[in-house]
Amino acid sequence: EEDEFSKWFVEDKRVHHLLDAVELWYIMTSWAASHKSENAKARLSETVAKLNARLREAGIGYELVDGRIMEKSNEFVHQEAVLPALNVLSEMRFANANSEFRKAFDAYKAADYEACLVDCLKAFESVMKVIAAEEGWGLPETATAKPLIAALFENEYIPGFMQSQFNGLRTMLESSVPTTRNKVGGHGKGVEVREVPKSLAAFQLHQTAAIIVFLANPNS
Predict the structure, then answer these.
(1) Are 85 and 94 in contact (CB under 8 A)?
(2) In this predicted model, what pLDDT tens digit does every residue of 158-192 receive, in sequence order?
């Protein structure tokens, strides 16, 4: 059976099927390792590190992160925004945002770029809702991006002395993820057939990641 799988993996040319196979391998191996010794878990981590190193060496723009294959359209952005965002979202308080952000990556991988934009906004809003609840700002659970963004500045969550310096950031927060999603994704399509370009979805993924990292650590 192992030889049959290896033969299929080498011969199959459908990239998404191969990436799905890598994820399936990780799920099965991770489950097996969890029922064995710490050495088994360490070996799995080493294998994943080697896999990602081989992908980088081959110039293949994917990486296995927490059991999910993620596309890396830009190595710097991936290292400085995407991975830190995933680290932030691994905190229990951001469980909903974590699920939504990962769904955005899944949608991107499946070329469902409109769904990617929708899930980017959901993750963005969920992070702000957590912050608003923890700060006790009294915003309703149904609050959308606009009032949530306004609350960040009105309550000086982004420090007052940084207001002028980050005036451009406020414009970005108010007009980037929400506006892009509202204008292009998440509404009735009507008669016209609409396609969200891959480049726009990638931009929004990276922008959402950067915003999440900033909001989680506004004073760092």
Answers:
(1) no
(2) 876 765 655 555 555 555 566 666 666 665 555 45
User: What separation in angstroms does the CA of 185 have from each of 73, 146, 177, 206?
Assistant: 21, 17, 11, 17
Domain that holds residue 23: 1-72
The b/e string for 131-170 (b: 16+ C-beta within 10 A; e otherwise) is bbeeeebebeeebebebbbebbbeeebbeeeeeeebeebe
Q: What type of residue sits at position 110? A: A
Q: Among all chains, which residue has been given the structure tokens 């799905």?
A: 20
The span from the CA of 147 to the CA of 79, in Å, is: 31
Token pair for residue 194? 């609409």
162/53 same-domain check: no
**Paired tokens of 106:** 């899944």
